[in-house]
Specification:
Radius of gyration: 14 Å
Low-confidence stretches: none
Order of helices and strands: HHHEEEEEHHH
Mean pLDDT: 94
CATH topology: Mannitol-specific EII, Chain A
Shape: globular
């Protein structure tokens, strides 16, 4: 599975302004609403369920990267993801103690449970590459972020 199989490029958030988990999640969900991938009426439910998932254990997996996600949602009919980057960093309770700057937010309907795991696996592989994560964190603009994501898919 490739990142751009599920990431909605048009919803990419180059500069997240949120300073905590909830505001970052809301901002990324809103980006999907803006490009009409999610309905406005789904925002409250989706954000609440993602934050409930975070209470089970942080999705901050290290190297400045977090993967908040929601599976078995009725709000999408295919796996959907959005990339966001915070220049300031957000305390996401990452396992390595670092603030998160790189976010991959994923939503998966029940029928795509296998793809959910594949998408998480793809992002986890990226998280193991500290240099790549640093490049994403430090990318100068949206164009460079998208080029890096495309490069990751070419590997």
């Amino acid at each position: 599975m490739k990142l751009l199989d599920f990431l909605v490029k048009e919803a990419t958030v180059e500069n997240l302004t949120g300073s905590d988990k909830e505001s970052v999640v809301k901002e990324m969900v809103s980006a999907l609403v803006k490009v009409k991938v999610l309905k406005e009426s789904a925002v409250k439910d989706v954000v609440q369920k993602i934050l409930e998932r975070e209470k089970q254990g942080s999705t901050g997996i290290g190297n400045w990267l977090a993967v908040p996600h929601l599976k078995h949602t009725r709000h999408v009919d295919r796996i959907v993801g959005v990339f966001g980057r915070s220049r300031a960093g957000v305390d996401f309770g990452a396992i390595d103690g670092s603030h998160c700057h790189i976010f991959f937010l994923l939503f998966t309907p029940k029928k795509e449970a296998t793809n959910h795991l594949e998408a998480l696996k793809k992002v986890a592989q990226l998280a193991r590459d500290a240099d790549f994560c640093r490049y994403l964190r430090d990318a100068k603009d949206l164009k460079e972020i998208l080029e890096l994501l495309e490069e990751a898919d070419a590997r």
